[in-house]
Amino acid sequence: MNETINKQTPAIEPLKPLRVGIICNDTNREDLLHYRQELVNLNKEFGKNIKLILFGYNGINDGGNYLTDVDFEFVKPTTIVNYFKQLKSLELDVIFIPLIRNIYNVTSENYNKYLEAGVFKIPIITINIYPYNTLIVDKSNGFLYKEEKDLVPYLSHLYTQPSLVTIAGAEAHKIVTEEYNYSVENIKIISDLFVLKN
Predict the structure, then answer these.
(1) CA 81 to chain centre
(2) Which residue ranges in the chain fall short of pLDDT 70?
(3) CA distance 173 to 42
């Protein structure tokens, strides 16, 4: 007797959109606008699957809107007191730091965004230059790409590999809490102030 076994293929859950935060202000406008075409390409290729969230600056300066063709959610700048609460509430998967290879950027030692993001288990993606390439081990505690043209393919990879993003965020958090001034005690204070969960 032949029996037909009905095998149901399990439903494949669609990937959730990758939420890419860009924390910027008017002083790093040139860096942001340098990546305008990459951001336009990202929108065209992925639509709502990769969402851009600009926190602090929306590309407008002296009445000119320099990000006209880029689709993004804008979050207004906030006070220092509310900064961490706002950053947490954005539920970002990754933070993109747009940087140009110039003397100022490659001699800067400002890596506060890495530390701030690490508190929330959010990995950083940026170009492979100093100081971030001394802090980030690619695909371990963050993400480094070689050239601007590599940004879109890299974000595409992260969209399809959400577990890689989660693992890198957890590793960044571990490094920030164990190796920097963000001690367990400091993290507890920030947690109490800004209602950190996870």
Answers:
(1) 21
(2) 1-13, 62-63, 102-110, 181-198
(3) 27
Amino acid at 33: L
- Nearest alpha-carbon partner for 35 in 147, 156, 165, 158: 147
pLDDT digits (tens, 9 = 90+) for 80-101: 878 888 998 999 999 999 988 7
The identity of residue 85, as a single letter, is K
Global pTM value:
0.83
Q: Strand order of the sheet with strand 73-75?
A: 73-75, 50-55, 18-23, 94-97, 124-127, 143-145
Residue 89 one-letter amino acid: S
- The C-alpha angle 171, 118, 103, rounded to 5 degrees, equals 105
Residue of 28, 27, 36 whose CA lies nearest to 148: 36
Domains of the chain are 18-194 (3.40.50.2000)
